[in-house]
Amino acid sequence: MLTPPRTVVRRDAGLYALERALQRRGFAHVAGADEAGRGACAGPLVAAAVVLAPGRRGEIAGLADSKLLTAAARERVYAAVVAQAVAYQVVVIGADEIDGRGLHVCNLAAMRRALAGLSVAPEYVLTDGFGVDGLGVPGLAVWKGDRVSACVAAASVLAKVTRDRLMVQLDAEFPGYGFAEHKGYATADHQAALDRHGPCAEHRFSYVNVAAASGRSGRPPRARRPVPDIGIREPMGRMDPARGTVGVALDEQLRQPALLGEDVVMEGGWR
Question: What is the separation of C-alpha 10 from the centre of its chain, rounded to a whole number of angstroms?
C-alpha cells in the first residue's frame, strides 16, 4: 500500500487552515486544547478543550489567541464558542494540587481530562506547545498553537475567561493582593503585596517567590480553601451538559514538552 503524501500547512494560511486540512484527510472532529494560569504564582490552573464544527459553520467571529484579545473581546468570543462549539470541556486545578504534584504534571492532567471529557470523541487532537500522551487518537503539538489553530484558540479563550472570572472572585475573598488586576501573575504590584502581607491560601507555595515571602521554605499553610467550586456555575453561565462541563483533573505522569518548527507537518503519531 502506498503511503499518502504528507500534508504541509503553512503558518500564514489562516487560523482555520490546519483543522480543514485534517478534515480533508478524514478527521471530522478535531479537538484543540490549551491552558491558562501556567505562569501565575497564585490561583488555579485552568485547561479547556474544544471541538468546532467543520467548514464555515465552525467559524467564530473575532476568534484569536486569547492573549491578543481585550477582556471585552474575550467575553464576546467566549459566548460565541459556548454557543457554537460541537463540544467543549473546562477543567480547574487548584493551587494545592499544583504544589503537591507539580505544575507540568497538573497541566498534562488537566488537558487530558478536558479532552477525555468532551461529549463528542475527537478523532485528532491539537495541543498548544507540547504533546499529551494516552489519548488513543492521533495528535500534534503545535508551537504557538493558539495563533495557528482555531480550535486551540477557542480553548485558550475558554480557559482564560474562566480563570479570569475565578481570580476576580478570589480577589473578593482575599483582598489586598490585587488578584482582579494581575490575575495571580508575578507583577511588581503583586510581589509588593506578597512582601507586605505574606501569601494567602491560594498562592502556590512551590514557587520560589511565594516560598520566600512565606518564610515556610515552600511548605503550604495547614488549611486551604478548594478552588474548583468557586464561582464555576455563576461565572461560567449555564453549562450545557450535552456539550460542555467542568471537572477537576487527576494525577498524571510527567512528559517533557515537544515543540514543532515554523510550518506544521501533519503526520501525527498515536498518543
Answer: 24
Structural Rg of the chain based on CA atoms: 19
Give burial (CB, 10 Å; 0-12/13-18/19+) of 143.
middle
pTM: 0.79
The residue among 77, 86, 81, 78 whose CA lies nearest residue 28 is 86
In the predicted structure, residue 248 carries a pLDDT above the cut 50: no
Q: So what's the pLDDT on residue 92?
A: 97
Superfamily of domain covering 8-160+224-251 = Ribonuclease H-like superfamily/Ribonuclease H (3.30.420.10)
The CA distances from residue 129 to 103, 105, 168, in Å, are 15, 15, 27
DSSP 162-192: HHHHHHHHHHHHSTTS-HHHHTT---HHHHH
Query: What are the residue boundaries of the structural domains of the chain, listed by start?
Result: 8-160+224-251
Kindly state the cell numbers that stand for 271.
Answer: 498518543
Per-residue pLDDT, averaged over 98-111, amounts to: 94
What's the confidence (pLDDT) of residue 236? Answer: 35
Confidence tier at 6 by pLDDT (50, 70, 90): low
Q: Report how far residue 26's alpha carbon sits from residue 124's, in angstroms, rounded to the nearest whole number.
A: 10
Mode of pairing for the β-strands spanning 264-266 and 7-9: antiparallel
What stretch of H or E contains 60? none
For residue 38, what is the DSSP state? T
The pLDDT-based confidence of 268 (bands split at 50, 70, 90) is very low
Distances (CA, A) of 233 to 24, 183, 184, 218: 37, 19, 21, 32
Q: Which grid cell is 30?
A: 478535531
